[in-house]
Amino acid sequence: xxxxxxxxxxxxxxxxxxxxxxxxxxxxxxxxxxxxxxxxxxxxxxxxxxxxxxxxxxxxxxxxxxxxxxxxxxxxxx
Length: 78
Hints:
This protein has 78 residues and is α+β, with helices and mostly antiparallel strands. It has helices at residues 18-28, 45-56; strands spanning 7-10, 35-40, 59-66, 69-75. It has a single domain (7-75), classed as 2-Layer Sandwich (Translation Initiation Factor IF3).
């Protein structure tokens, strides 16, 4: 089943730490259970998102990569 994001965040062209900071800010305005889709072409974003999700407790549902572009789905848990 394909997960449908409640909100999308485009971080293409931004580099660490901007994708994580923008993701954090977007999550603040979402309700628990909602899903954020963030796209980034920063090569460090995969490792950054994995550690950010582990640190914050939000659920990293999916990581897709298409060429240089990563797509992350994160569910707000708290």
